[in-house]
Write a structure and sequence with these properties.
single chain; 6 helices; 172 residues; two-stranded antiparallel ribbon; 2 strands; mainly alpha
Length: 172
């Protein structure tokens, strides 16, 4: 019995020594690999950086497939956190800006007070909850452009009418 255990112990020692040599070789190669990565870090694209990060963050061990398995999702979907109010009417009603527009908000927008507010704040949907009105520059510029187009077309129409009347009076 002592002879078989001695053989098995010698075999295990040889196996561990071989593993030790492999680890020493790997440890000698790691600084070289890091130097290469640092050298080409600026050249890597974002996609390549993500791939590299996945390789680095990969868990060690034989059972890596089960460790990287995505967590099971609940049948109801993901749970969203509560969102603060984005819009607040003068009457006190608030809305986060998500989902359908509440009836109170659409009714307020159609009222005289809402129309006047929208006229004075082009590009903004409703009054902001924090009191600072954020306007979308694209919407504001579009409205300004429409007003400008209307005025230019009216002015051009008036000029053309004047020219026609001048020509008509000269011919007579």
């Amino acid at each position: 019995m002592a002879f078989t255990t001695l053989k098995s112990l010698n075999a295990e020692i040889k196996q561990l020594e071989a593993q030790k040599k492999l680890v020493e070789l790997r440890d000698g190669e790691v600084p070289k690999a890091l130097a290469v990565l640092q050298k080409y870090a600026r050249v890597l694209s974002p996609a390549q950086r993500r791939q590299l990060a996945k390789l680095i963050e990969e868990p060690t061990g034989a059972n890596t497939v089960t460790a990287r398995k995505a967590p099971a999702r609940s049948p109801q979907g993901r749970k969203l956190g509560k969102v603060g109010a984005k819009y607040r009417l003068p009457t006190g009603e608030t809305w986060s800006g998500r989902g359908l527009t509440p009836k109170v908000f659409s009714a307020w927008a159609k009222s005289a007070e809402g129309k006047a507010w929208i006229q004075s704040n082009p590009g903004a949907k409703f009054p902001a909850a924090n009191g600072v009105v954020k306007t979308s520059p694209a919407k504001a510029s579009n409205k300004a452009g429409k007003v400008l187009k209307k005025t230019t077309t009216k002015a051009a129409a008036k000029k053309s009418v004047r020219k026609i009347t001048k020509k008509a009076t000269k011919k007579v």
